[in-house]
Structure formats: C-alpha cells, structure tokens
C-alpha cells in the first residue's frame, strides 16, 4: 500500500513508519523535514500536501498540537490551538483527504486515553480527543468509499522516560504502533482503537 504518514518524525510516528515500511510504501509528512511538509492548523497546507502526494491507499495522522495546563491557566489561544490543530487539523485529513484515498482505503487519526481517563491539566486535550472519537464514529456512517478510525494511545514509555517519569504504566512506541497497523490493514471503521489492546 501507499501510505501517507503525518507526524512521522514524532516518537509514535517513527515507530509506525518502522512497522509499516517492510511491506508498504510510506510517505512521511512533517511540519518540517520528511518527504512533504504540512501544517495541520492550515487548510491550504493540507490541500497542498495532498495535491503533492496524489492518490494513496491510507492516511495516518500521529500529529496534533494541544496544551497541557491547569484549567484556570488555559487561555483562549490554548483552546484555539487544540481546536484548529489537533481537532480540525485531523478532521480536515478526512474532509479533504477523502478524494485522495483510493476506494477501500482508510484514514486513521490519533486521539488519546485522556478522552476517557482525564487528569489534572488535561481538559483541552481531553476535549479534542473526545471530539475526534465522536466524529469518527459518526463520519463512518456516511463514508462509503473509505474506512475511518482513531487510535487512542496511552502515555508512551519513551516520552515518559524523557520527562523523568516512572515508565511502568506506559506503553512503548513500538507496541503502540501495532494499533495503527491494525487500523490500516483491518476492516473496521468508526472505531476507537485503544493501543494497549493491540499488544
């Protein structure tokens, strides 16, 4: 398959690319670097990426920006970042990308466990994650030519270690990548794939 991977330079994205490359052609898209550049918060940039890459069999997004901060410290700009980048940026990969995905192909987005297991400081991220999961569930009912799913990772061990956190409760990026491979190679649609369920 020809797969467009957005966020390929990130910890999860790099693991997804490693998992897929032996059997598929992976085109990497990042804010900077990669095979093609894209700014998820900019619709014109998303259009330009798809026009540059052309038809694909699958699109995967492991990207999306949102702030982590206490509720009373969040600014309107923090909410707008989450809405425009992590939420609408990924939704636009379906809205715009559906005309570039071959029949029977798929688009896989990224939410996260904070949609259903929030913590102090996660309100904006939890908001975007929950909205993505609801959108995919509803959009799948109306999309006849492609499948749409969302992967919900938990904290990644590599990121936890970088932040000096105890990694016991985390999941490695390589294990997390299994959920994305399942979304691309499976036949499900409208589903939220919890990453720990694919280890």
TrEMBL record:
Keyword Lipid biosynthesis: no
InterPro entries listed in its UniProt record: NAD(P)-bd_dom_sf, SDR_DHRS6-like, SDR_fam
Keyword annotations from UniProtKB, A to Z: Oxidoreductase
One Gene Ontology MF term: oxidoreductase activity
CDD domains: Lin1944_like_SDR_c (cd11731)
Family: Belongs to the short-chain dehydrogenases/reductases (SDR) family.
Name of the featured protein: Short-chain dehydrogenase/reductase SDR
Organism (species): Shewanella piezotolerans (strain WP3 / JCM 13877)
């Amino acid at each position: 398959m020809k797969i467009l991977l957005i966020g390929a330079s990130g910890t999860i994205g790099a693991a997804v690319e490693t998992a897929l490359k032996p059997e598929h052609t992976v085109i990497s898209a990042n804010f900077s670097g990669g095979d093609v550049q894209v700014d998820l918060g900019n619709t014109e940039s998303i259009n330009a990426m798809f026009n540059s890459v052309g038809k694909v069999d699958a699109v995967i997004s492991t990207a999306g920006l949102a702030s982590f901060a206490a509720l009373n410290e969040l600014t309107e700009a923090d909410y707008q970042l989450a809405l425009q980048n992590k939420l609408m940026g990924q939704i636009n990969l379906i809205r715009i990308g559906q005309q570039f995905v071959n029949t029977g192909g798929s688009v896989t987005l990224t939410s996260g466990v904070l949609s259903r297991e929030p913590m102090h400081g996660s309100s904006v991220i939890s908001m975007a994650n929950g909205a993505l999961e609801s959108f995919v569930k509803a959009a799948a009912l109306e999309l006849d030519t492609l499948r749409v799913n969302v992967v919900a990772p938990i904290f990644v061990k590599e990121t936890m270690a970088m932040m000096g956190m105890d990694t016991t409760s985390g999941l490695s990026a390589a294990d997390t990548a299994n959920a994305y491979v399942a979304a691309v190679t499976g036949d499900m649609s409208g589903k939220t794939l919890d990453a720990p369920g694919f280890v």
